[in-house]
Amino acid sequence: MIPALARALTTAAGAGELLLRPAALLSRSQGQGVVLSDTEHRPWPLPRGPWLMAQTWEDLLFAHWPVPAERLRPLLPPSIPLDVRDGSAWVAVTPFRVSAIRLRGVPHLPGITAFPELNVRTYTTMHGKPGIWFMSLDAASALAVVGARRAYRLPYFKADMECRDPGGWIEYRSRRVSHDGEPAELAGRYRPTGSEAPPAPGSLEHWLTERYCLYTLDEHGDVLRADIHHPPWALRTAEASFELNTMAEPYGLELDEPPALLQLRAPPGRADLATRRELTGRPRPPLACRANLEGLERGADPRGGQRRRCRPAASPGQRETAGAGAQPTRSALRRGVARCPRQAVELSRASRRTHACVPRDAGWRRPARRA
Question: Is residue 209 classed as helix, strand or coil in its secondary structure?
Fold first, then answer.
């Protein structure tokens, strides 16, 4: 039933895209899929199959801080390697506006599918594919928060946000209000200062921004990958001042110093982005999780080996936690989203203690029941 429904929805989405073609000639937000015609810059080919979702971003700022790798690595799950450049790991705070987001075959609805968003991210590479690890994502849309948590297992949180351009400067404010997230705020302003130019291949700017996938964990602690496509970033140097920035404090990181690197997406911070479903030729996932894992691919264990060894169940005194109250909630295990950012590590460990692991080359199989 579910495979037949998935095929029907795919067919309906394709038909919807055909109906939206006339509107795409008048509105760029309805014709975002056109970016898929430009793929020569990609480091690996696009996955086969239709794209699932498209977004248009505006006023996008990349604010990067170098962080000692030994401080950042414990904050990532053990299965996620940390990318390091010139001896430093990097954390980015990226405020922007989503001016249009829509599913394939569904039109953009002004006022509903447009909202500010703010990400905190670092970087990882698996299977030779550089990607993004999102530490947190804040959005003003409750619908986007719920949808991204369910479909992509991303740590989204609802926030009160405002982004406006009174003239020259982009003023941005965000305050997290989700009951299951630790407090985090950003208040500041930014503007472009230089001319538009693509980052040079091999440069730090290129290494940080030209990444075409994201990684996350499912409810079993397994690594998933979602492929992303966008035109090559054209960046402008920028200046920014932050009155308040506590976005990394839930991780024990303080970003009090000015960012070491600032770029604004040009012109003027606009980008079209489409995500596609990864078809790997593997057996279909079990029915219980198929609907939530469309568009994501199970990643291999970076430590190598055909089977990842499961840890035996640990007693409360033996559990490795980040502190009191850091145990993931039962609902967090179901959603794959930790209440506290530090719980991400424990979430991965706890899920491995309670679920069977499968061989990495076995494809999708239902975990064996334990006696």
Answer: helix
Instruction: Give burial (CB, 10 Å; 0-12/13-18/19+) of 364.
Output: middle
User: Which tens digits make up the pLDDT trace of 242-256?
Assistant: 999 999 999 999 998
**What pTM value is reported for the model?**
0.74
The b/e string for 35-67 (b: 16+ C-beta within 10 A; e otherwise) is bbeeeeeeeeeebeebbbbbbbbbbbbbbbbbb
CA distance 236 to 205: 11
8 Å CB contact between 100 and 58: no
Of the candidates 67, 199, 78, 79, which has an alpha carbon nearest to the alpha carbon of residue 127? 79
Summarize pLDDT for 303-356 with one digit per residue, the tens. 343 333 333 333 334 333 333 344 444 444 444 444 444 444 443 333 333 232
Summarize pLDDT for 272-281 with one digit per residue, the tens: 666 654 433 2
CB 190 within 8 A of CB 264: yes
CB-based contact 26:64 (threshold 8 Å): no
What is the percentage of the chain residues whose pLDDT exceeds 90?
43
Report the distance separating Cα 91 and Cα 83, nearest Å. 11
Question: Which pLDDT tens digit goes with each residue over 13-22?
Answer: 778 777 777 7
CATH architecture of the domain covering 43-276 = Beta Barrel (2.40)
Environment class of residue 344 by beta-carbon count within 10 Å: exposed (0-12), middle (13-18) or buried (19+)?
A: buried
Q: What is the dihedral of CA 20, 21, 25, 31, to 10 degrees?
A: 70
Q: How many CB atoms lie within 10 A of CB 254?
A: 11
* H-state helical runs in 131-220: 142-152, 204-209
Q: Which residues are registered as beta bridge partners of 159?
A: 176
